[in-house]
Write a structure and sequence with these properties.
alpha/beta, seven-stranded mixed β-sheet, Rossmann fold, globular, about 40% helix
């Protein structure tokens, strides 16, 4: 299977990390060997999976700069079959240091390719920007999941993201495609949420996942306990939605088509 997926949107607070943590956890629980690569210097994927971010320990920053073999920094989590490549605040400096380096856009790909044979799925949690780190993630990935929150200005800035994806496809990674578009933070009480769903489906058509992630208190609470929603409250609405997403994700993969180019 061996697929690398980046979850990306340059807007913050759209559910990138929540999606990476919970989708990867459900896939791991389904028996898939899964890895999370935390490409955000805030390290929220690590903390969401209960992995401590130690500034003194080597992480993704050192791997990108070639100071450590990425295979040496893979950590296990409390979820069977789920591992993580950690990051910490040091990674924020990589954005500047990479500019001067050879193959600067391929540093993450070269590292992640060393791990591909060990995992069915590798998920990259990207920072809320379209800088060099996110470019590295897009170059390393086979496909991209775009989370879009059901709020005002949901589609604002997306044209820039799509332009960046197309640029990466044409110059650096011709195989990159959209795995799917995920609607998040849906509020059943508002007409606005329904309007955003209609707007996103109108724009992305069959690339939009049928599973929609609702606003859910338990989903918001889980990271502070260092647990994915499947371990924190498996009976919650948020847990059910990410479980359903994992099933839809696998089903699309079996068809071999994902959600198109």
């Amino acid at each position: 299977m061996n697929k690398t997926i980046i979850v990306a949107n340059q807007k913050g607070g759209v559910g990138k990390t929540t999606t990476v943590v919970n989708l990867s956890a459900y896939l791991a629980e389904a028996g898939m060997k899964t890895l999370v690569v935390d490409l955000d210097s805030q390290g929220n994927s690590c903390s969401g999976l209960g992995v401590k971010k130690d500034l003194n320990e080597k992480g993704l920053y050192e791997a990108l700069l070639g100071l450590v073999d990425i295979r040496e920094i893979v950590l296990s989590t409390s979820v069977k079959n789920l591992s993580v490549v950690p990051s910490n605040i040091n990674l924020s400096g990589a954005q500047v240091e990479l500019v001067e380096m050879d193959d600067r856009e391929y540093r993450l790909k070269n590292a992640v390719d060393m791990l591909k044979d060990q995992f069915d799925f590798i998920f990259i949690d990207s920072p809320p920007s379209l800088g060099l780190l996110t470019i590295n993630g897009l170059v390393a990935a086979d496909s991209i999941i775009i989370p879009i929150q059901c709020e005002y200005y949901a589609l604002e800035g997306l044209s820039q993201l799509l332009k960046t994806i197309n640029l990466v496809k044409s110059k650096l990674n011709p195989g990159l495609r959209i795995e799917g578009v995920l609607l998040t933070m849906y509020d059943t009480r508002t007409n606005l949420s329904k309007q955003v769903v209609e707007e996103v489906i109108s724009y992305f058509k069959n690339k939009v996942y049928k599973t929609i992630i609702p606003r859910n208190v338990k989903l918001a609470e889980a990271p502070s306990f260092g647990k994915p929603i499947s371990l924190y409250d498996s009976g919650s609405v948020g847990a059910l939605s990410y479980y359903n997403l994992s099933k839809e994700f696998l089903k699309n993969g079996e068809k071999g088509t994902g959600k198109g180019a």
